[in-house]
Amino acid sequence: MISFIIRRLIAAVFLLIIVSMVVFAIFFILPKLGGQTNYGLATQYVGRNPTRAAVLQMIDQLGLNKPLYLQYWAYLKAIVAGGHYGTGTSSVYCPPPCFGYSFKNQQPVWPAMVSDIPVTLSLAIGAAILWLIAGIGIGVVSALKRGSIFDRFSMTIALAGVSLPIFFTGLISLELFSYKWPIFPNVQFVPFTQNPALWARNLILPWVTLAFLYAALYARLTRAGMLETMGEDYIRTARAKGLPERTVIFKHGLRAALTPIVTIFGMDIGLLLGGAVLTEYTFSLHGLGLFTIEAIQNQDFPEIMGVVMLAAFFVVIANLVVDILYAVLDPRVRY
Amino acid sequence: MTEEQTQSPPVPESGNGSAQSNEELLRVTDLVRHFPVTRGIIFRQKVGAVRAVDGINLSVSKGQTLGLVGESGCGKTTTGRLLTRLDEPTSGQIVIDGHDVTHLRTRQMRPLRREIQMIFQDPYSSLNPRHTVGAIVGAPYRLQGLKPPGGIKRSVQELLELVGLNPEHYNRYPHEFSGGQRQRIGIARTLALRPKLIVADEPVSALDVSIQAQVVNLLEDLQDELGLTYVVIAHDLSVVRHISDHVAVMYLGKIVEVAPRDELYARPRHPYTVALLSAVPVPEPPGTAAGQKKRRGRITLEGDVPSPLAPPPACRFHTRCWKAQQICKTQEPPLAELAPGHKVACHFPENTPQQHEEITPQAQQAPADPAPPS
Amino acid sequence: MAPLLEVEDLRIHFPTDDGLVKSVDGVSFSLDRGSTLGIVGESGSGKSVTSLGIMGLHQGTSARITGEIKLDGEELVGADPARVRELRGGKMAMIFQDPLSSLHPYFKIGDQIAEAYRIHHPDASKKQARQRAVDMLGRVGISRPSVQVDSYPHQFSGGMRQRVMIAMALCNDPELLIADEPTTALDVTVQAQILDLISDLQSEFGSAVIIITHDLGVVAELADDILVMYAGRPVEYGSAVDIFGQPSHPYTWGLLASMPRIDRERTTRLVPIPGTPPSLIKVPSGCPFHPRCRYASQTGGKSQSEVPPLREVTPGHLSACHLTAAQRTEFWTQLSGGEVREDSKEPA
Fold first, then answer.
1. pTM score of the predicted model
2. Model confidence over C297-328: pLDDT tens digits?
3. Complex confidence, ipTM
4. How far is A3 from chain C (nearest CA, A)?
5. What domain range is C113 assigned to?
6. Is C122 part of any domain?
């Protein structure tokens, strides 16, 4: 088991390195292949009023005239050890982890991102808890009462949940529960440390909107997994031992049905942590999703690059955790 | 006299009714198939190998049936896959009808697929449920680009009739047939190209007893009618006895005994074969005389088969053999011909009137073989 | 001494979209303490469905069960499911065909055995249950049981897994053990070990055993009495000596004749039963075996129209056949001595 974990950890580190290479390639190699010049490329990083001198200095800073591996090395080094941007009086120090310096916003990228992380984190984790409980619960009941009215009804609702876009359900819920009936007026992010009750209250609408989509998915998955598991021979053995049906369903059945769902959850939460774009946009919550959109709209390359790296990091970590969790659940996988 | 590892073909048995030809259709020499096992945290290194097939020699004459028996892990299924080149040997040689097929690539193998075919064990999963019976049985013609006179459909219907199915069921799907009928469909497909050699991997073990008998009879009839040569892989010793001319017994990747059928069942010499035969339950209740006699001769082996990852050194059976002596742990017994056509790999074979000194001269200092437990 | 298990006219039917599947249609037998009943039949004969019915494992399915199943005098058909659950795993236990899929892959085998123990001994502590698991593993011949108790099923071989299943079934000293094809998935030498084990443990624990199999050799090893089933109906019932010595039903003859025998002269041809087992929805009228029976024509038309009742051949030996006892004796003598023609092709 330990060697399994070590192997996975090392694989995760390798993966992160490769991700950084890919990100680097997207931002520094692809444009060149598409015909972009060093000058044009450097202009993107300079800021609002690119003077020729500033651009030339940026070329120098990013090492665009140097071999690729040195450029990449400079990029990596900055993440770990920080870097300087600009010269003379306008020289700025960007402390590690330095994902670049956004000239458009006149600040290092990392602190800007960090302030948005709690929003996305609250949104994602809160919604995750909701959708896991609702989705798996409904899935289990549907599987056990297959063909019943509950089953058909819940699966139809699930179909709706999967089909309706978030901005639609989000806007409808805002219209109904925020404006028309002011149950949740003024949905604005309040940090947890400031006022937990308000934090939760303001997030309920986005949580439910986001969870609706995923709960639907998980309900269908759980239902399918449970149906398959409950038909297995070891369930028959459990009943033959005289175990109460509840134990058979939950301890023997659900646990086996959940393992594939754990894997999918890893992917879903990993992606969500990188920014629940639609939900944040609909509810005007300034998390990483909104950060990404603004960065793209502003063509702020350092910010885009930074958020891409961060999102990739979350995905890799989430998958690592989930892989290990899977091995904890299923002893056949540990080697 | 010294024994060689490669041997001459066994003397073919006479009087069994089928083709009397001496012609050798299949010859396998020193066949080996190892599956590497890797370990390591970052870089996977090969730390060992599953020695599924570890040096076997076989020979089958035209029109004969070789039965290959053994228990799980003995390598018989892997051998079957190697013979039909569904897998590539690690070393050794396979010669079919004069062609050396050992390391042929897929494209080179394709024309030879007309000569060698396989019948699979599970009639439920070996037929594509989305294809009609006609499509399944006709597929070999299409794949080989052959156009039989009268058309593919006509040939398929003839084949269906040959195996005892109604040719009008051409357009039905596998799920509309029973297990026994599905196995017949599989056999029809196998026969489409009139192969010379058919490898049957547990052809009847997934079927009910009464259907097994139907299919066994069918295979025998087809052999007589079409002059087929079979290699039948099975664990059911009763079925093998019924259908084979020669029988080879495998244990942990090696052949421990090979003999003409009647010889093997009447005078098994390798202790493993003896134990195997005595373990087969016979339908005679203990109260009767026949039942008592059977139980007296019963040998129950201790423990489980060792792992093919680390087979015991020298004689692989020594860990479970009641007669094992020191030499069995240090020197691997060669496959020696003790009677015409009857080869055994054992230092102290059963049912052998000669003294063991003649078999393995080096063992002259060893004590006499102990009697088996009753 | 009253029998431990009495089954009377048991019928288990499943309504489906295609019709009513009559898996078990009128089975009766009794089983004394310490003795072994073998139920023999091919797929679709209803033997497994019968055993699941005794264990109450059709609970929650669409099965319609009528008849009587009396375990130690207590009626199980229609009984409170909670009561049946109490008995299940405690007084009556079952082992299944494929030990790999029958053991939960995620739990240690010791925990699975301990779970079976604790559900029927609620006062037992975890430590006691674990000790019981270790003891049982040792009893069934698993070496180093105190170490192996923490292993997972996938780490064992097929034979060892079946021993674990037996240990789990016997850990509560059941009075009735049902073994459903316990050795079909195992190698022949391992099969011999397992059959010996069941036999030894039966003597030691004094349980009654029902062994379900399609293998006449296996049933000869263990059974005192044998019930032969076909298409959900009993066709022959008697002691093992009777059934093998003087079988009295064409289906039984067919089973015996179609098996290649290792202990006899090799026959040049096996004598299979022509045709295939019938659909359980459209069971043939009259005697369910009549379409495949070469003697059906000798019954004066009764095979097609009347269901033959189980009638006594000799005391304790029953057969459901329209042929007279004299006819049957004659035909069996012919079969066991002389030649019989048959056809390897299917009837059109």
1. 0.82
2. 888 888 888 889 989 989 999 999 998 888 88
3. 0.87
4. 18
5. 100-173
6. yes
- Residue-wise pLDDT for B269-288, tens only, equals 999 999 988 888 888 877 67
Contacts of A6 in chain B (CB under 8 A): 41
Closest partner residue to A329 (CB to CB) among C93, C106, C116 is C106
Q: What is the pLDDT of residue A233?
A: 92
Is A110-333 a CATH 3.40.50.300 domain?
A: no
Question: Considering its fold, how many domains does chain C have in total?
Answer: 1
C221 touches chain B (CB under 8 A): yes
- Dihedral sign computed on CA atoms, order A184, A185, A189, A195: negative
Contact C55 A236 (CB under 8 A): no
Contacts of A3 in chain B (CB under 8 A): 41
Higher pLDDT, C58 or C300: C58
> Hey, how many other C-beta atoms are within 10 angstroms of the C-beta on C158?
18
The CA distance from A107 to A100, in Å, is: 9
At B15 the pLDDT is 39
CB contact under 8 A, B181 and C346: yes
CA atoms within 13 A on the CB side of B147: 2
**How far A253 CA sits from the closest chain C CA (Å)?**
9
Tokens, residue B82:
């190697």
- Is residue C12 predicted with pLDDT exceeding 90? yes
Domain positions in chain A are 2-98, 110-333
Say which residues have a Cβ less than 8 Å from residue B332's Cβ, sequence separation at least 6: B313, B314, B315, B345
How many CA atoms lie within 13 Å of C184's alpha carbon, on the beta-carbon side?
22
- pLDDT bin (cut points 50, 70, 90) of residue B83 is very high
Per-residue confidence (pLDDT) for residue B18, from 0 to 100: 43
* pLDDT digits 0-9 by tens, A301-312: 888 888 888 898
- Residue B40 pLDDT: 66
For residues A42 and A57, give the distance between their C-alpha atoms in angstroms, rounded to a whole number.
Answer: 9
Task: Give the pLDDT confidence score for residue B233 in this predicted structure.
Answer: 93
Q: Is the CB of residue B309 less than 8 Å away from at least one CB of chain C? A: no
**How far apart, in whole angstroms, are the C-alpha atoms of residue B351 and residue B191?**
41
Question: Is the pLDDT reported for residue A57 higher than 80?
Answer: no
Six token digits for residue B315? 């004689």
Distance CA B224, CA B20 (A): 11
Tell me if chain C has a CB within 8 Å of the CB of A325: no
Bond preceding residue A97 cis, omega within 30 of 0: yes
Residue extents of the structural domains in chain B: 24-115+232-349
Q: How far is CA A276 from CA A116, A165, A207, A215, B169, in A?
A: 12, 13, 11, 15, 57
Put simply, the answer to whether B42 touches A3 (Cβ < 8 Å) is no
Residue C108 lies in a domain: yes
Residue B294: pLDDT above 70? Answer: no
HEC secondary structure over chain B: CCCCCCCCCCCCCCCCCCCCCCCEEEEEEEEEEEEEEEECCCCCEEEEEEEEEEEEEEEEECCCEEEEECCCCCCHHHHHHHHCCCCCCCEEEEEECCEECCCCCHHHHHHHHHCEEEECCCCCCCCCCCCCHHHHHHHHHHHHCCCCCCCHHHHHHHHHHHCCCCHHHHHCCHHHCCHHHHHHHHHHHHHCCCCCEEEEECCCCCCCHHHHHHHHHHHHHHHHHHCCEEEEEECCHHHHHHHCCEEEEEECCEEEEEEEHHHHHHCCCCHHHHHHHHHCCCCCCCCCHHHHHHHHCCCCCCCCCCCCCCCCCCCCCCCCCCCCCHHHHHCCCCCEEEECCEEECCCCCCCCCCCHHHCCHHHHHCCCCCCCCC
Q: Is residue C193 part of a domain?
A: no
Domain B24-115+232-349 top-level CATH class: alpha beta
C88–chain B nearest CA distance, Å: 30
Mean pLDDT of chain A: 85
- The answer, for C266 touching chain B at a CB cutoff of 8 Å, is yes
